[in-house]
Amino acid sequence: MDKTIKAHVLFFVGVGILTLPYALSIAGWLGLLLFIAVAMVCCRTALLLERCMRGNESDVQSYGDMGYKAFGRSGKIVASLIGSTELYLSSISLLLLVSENLNYLFPHTVFYLGHLKLGEKKLFTVCTALVMLPTLFSTNVTKLSFISGLGTLGIFVIILAMLWVGGTSGYGFQDRAKVVSWKGISISTSLFLTCFGGHSVLPTLYNSMQNKQQFTKVLLLSFSCNSIVYLIVAVGGYLIFGGETCPQITLNFPKQELGSKIALYTSLVIPLSRYPLLISPVADAIEDGLPKQYKKQLICIVIRFILLIITTLIACFFPYFESLMAIVGSFSVVLTSLLFPCCCYLKLRGGEKFNVKFIEMLGIIVFGIMTGVTGLYFVVFDLVHGAG
Question: Which residues are in the Amino acid transporter transmembrane domain (predicted)?
Answer without folding.
Answer: 12-380
